[in-house]
Amino acid sequence: MTSQKNWLRKTYDSLHATGHYLFNHIEASVNRVFGERFNLFYFLGTIPIFLLLLLIFTGLYMFVYYSMAVDTTYESVKYITENAPLGQFFRSLHHYAADAMMFFVILHLLKVFVEGRYQNHRWLSWVSGIFLLTFVLTDGITGYMMSLDSTSHFVLEKTSEYLVGLKIFGHTLTRTFAAQSLMGKWIMWIILVIHFAIPLSFLFLIYIHVKRVSRAKIIPPKAMMIGIAAFLISFAVIFPIGMKEAADYGKIAFLDQINWFYLFIAPFMNGENWELKVFLGFSLSFLILLGVPWYRKRPVIDPADLDLDHCTGCSMCAQDCPYEAIQMQPRTDNHPKYKRESKVDPILCSGCGTCVGSCDYGAMNLSQLRIPLVQEKINEACSKGKPKETWLGIFCQSQFEALKKKDLLKRLPSLQPVVYPCVGIVGPSLIEKAIHSDAKGVIIGSCPENGCEYREGNIWLGKRLLGQRKPHFRKVDRQFPLALIRFNESGGEDFITTARDFMDKHSSKSMGEQAKRALSYVKQGKPFFHYSLSIITLSILLWLFYLGAVSPFGSIPLDTSKSLLRIDFSYETSYKSGGEIDQKEFQKEFKRITRFIKLDQLTHKQRERLTKMAKDNVKRKFSHGNKPLEIEVYVDKELKAKKSYQPSGIKRDGRIFVLHKEFIPPGKHKIVLKAYEIMGQKKAHPLKSFEISRDFEGGRVYFIDYSKAKSGFYIRKK
Description:
Elements: H1 2-34, H2 47-63, H3 70-82, H4 87-114, H5 123-144, H6 150-165, H7 172-176, H8 187-209, H9 222-238, H10 274-290, E1 304-306, H11 316-320, E2 326-330, E3 340-344, H12 354-358, E4 364-366, H13 371-382, E5 391-396, H14 397-405, E6 415-420, H15 428-436, E7 441-446, H16 457-465, E8 482-486, H17 492-507, E9 517-521, H18 527-549, E10 563-571, H19 583-593, H20 604-621, E11 629-635, E12 638-645, E13 656-664, E14 667-679, E15 682-686, E16 690-696, E17 701-707, E18 712-716
Parallel strand pairs: 5-6, 5-7, 7-8, 8-9, 10-17
Antiparallel strand pairs: 1-4, 2-3, 10-13, 11-12, 11-14, 14-15, 14-16, 17-18
């Protein structure tokens, strides 16, 4: 068992490592081509929100022309597509924006998963994201119900069968979508309200999703929004959505084109008990995804804490915290000058140390990395080389591990590394400590601007370095060489080259003051490789989107090799208790209540009392209860099905809903349907039998209904 657990753990970790490696190299190449501010992979979570706005806009346009009356719904969609101004364009844009939304949600989920950004303080974002994914899927499915074409027919029928099969709704739901004449006048309103209500619920879920994130990015950059909109517009023009045939309830439901973003489950919607199998598959997948934050061992977090004696209540730590783990509150020590103090929530704290770099007074510390220990680490690093000749290298954990893995720091023997969770911990006071430790200069290696594991640490450091955010580096000696170099984990060699160039230039006597403070992003070498990888990656993404949205393969064609005999009706049995008592039920009940009594010792009155008790129990058992109904289906005199149906309701006093599907080969057949009310083990009150001889066409549905007004069974036409 232990070996199996170890194997699973290694496999899980390998999956993470492989995915992280791929995403990191792709991000590095896209950064090289488009720049890190316009890297698609840094905004996978914000793009779906932009697409949601686009969906609302196009949806409202179509709503103006849409009819909720069942008999005119299809015609209204046809009018939108063929006659309304830009109707087909808006419908196509709406369709592909929905596909793109699911596409980017899945990409965002994969990226967060392989980078491991779902544990500790991030678990709420992951869990709410899984619910968002489920809601997006549900909303997309309801969208397919609204046009009442052949695809709508398939989706409505299978969805109703699924809900009825799980006992969520009664059989009346499947009957509702079995014929247009059975669909109530409010049914399309209900579907429309659900389709509109789910996007409104997104607002609440998105709020939960980003609740623990400060300054959450909701919308991607304007240039990226324009680019995505232009792509979808082009896609809508090249691949316009046309009209499919109207829903024909006289045909077996079929799907001529599978949309793999929303209808991927369609091929599994057949066979015996498929509803339960699909439910178990969805439930298992949902629970597995929900539990992802707790499968791996949680990384230990060193939370920040406050040294109140040094706190001035300036609130810079609260402003810079990327996860809203710090709040300002009234002073607890009655300080005569300062009125507020910081309060750290250790549950929300990520241990990044950004608050340490934002405090110029030494009030913020990490619990296990306090200011004296920071000074000690710097002194230890600087003491490994000659005074005034040793460079101090400050790295975040992820970038240092990337350099260490390839053993690249050996190429810079004069650079002594110091590692912190995030370079956001660097403030003016830390650089002054490096100066006092006789460091020749400081080189800080950090993640790309939008690739920081802690979101904003490297951004705030860059702004402090440029004097755009407090605490400024202005009081740090301008003659002291200081460089912030951002690079991808795959760009370690290019970082070494950039750092060496900066160190060599510092040795030049002609170097000016401005050059001694630098902020740069490493543009990785091998431009041909990065351009090629970017083009290949974007081409693969485009191809995957095309396969999922346009669906050139995959369908569930109309099966003309069989005909469907659909027996679907409701019936209220005529017999209710209060009449004669079924003798078998009476004898059974009498034996039950007298099983511990010697009957030959009873008096006549005692026997009468027990007899009355047994009869009352039988009456109570069937009180206000209808009898079951049994049906028999014969095809060419051969018994094909014999089923019993119980009355609905807790007391079994409601109507009986019968639904039976019998597939028969095309051709001429004689169908006989018999139905009986059941009392005990006997057949009673037979309904008028139904007989028909006719040619059955392949792929057609023959709907047998029942109505007392029509004197029994009949074939429903519409």
